Amino acid sequence: MARESLEQIKARKQPRQARAKATVDAIFEATIQVLLSDGLSRLTTTRVAERAGVSVGTMYQYFPQKQALLFALLARHIEAVADGVATARARCHGLSLETISDGLVEAYLDAKTKNLDAARALYAVAAEIDTDDLLGTVARRNQNAVCDVLKSAEDVTFDAPDEVAFTLRATLAGTTRAVLERGATRQELAAMRRELPILCRAYLCARAMRTLAPGCR
Which parts of the sequence belong to the HTH tetR-type domain (predicted)? Predict the structure, then answer.
């Protein structure tokens, strides 16, 4: 599948009414199921429409082509993750480093694992369409949120908060992808929930100004 430009893959219109939103939700869910059962190469708007129980004409009202559908689905997923990070930023702002670290990790994992099928199916999608603008915008949003809440910590300071925020985000993204992309078992998901907070907390404590972080000694 050739990579398409952003202008080529924009959704035709956005659902406004509850019934329209329910239709689009059904289309998104059907897309995920087709991706998982048939693979990206065999996904077509006709197959998705059949799985969703809607007409192809209804599909085209919102998504003029397959790439537009995939782009919209991917955008919804990664924006939900950004929303989770933003919520953690607001909830943990000005609290201890440990609380901030655990809050960010929990929010990220909650968002990424809310729909495991979607998370697993969409890793392959990003490589097939032009998502640079979308991913860049969301990455900047997450970077700003993480950096801001780290700088607000009541018990530590950082000499390079931007670098620390970037590394923390990369750790979260890389770990979750490694676990989710190959189809994690229940035990592996539980292990990630248990171990990732420890990893992130240890890294942040190591990078914090230790004279202001007695809990990180």
Answer: 21-81
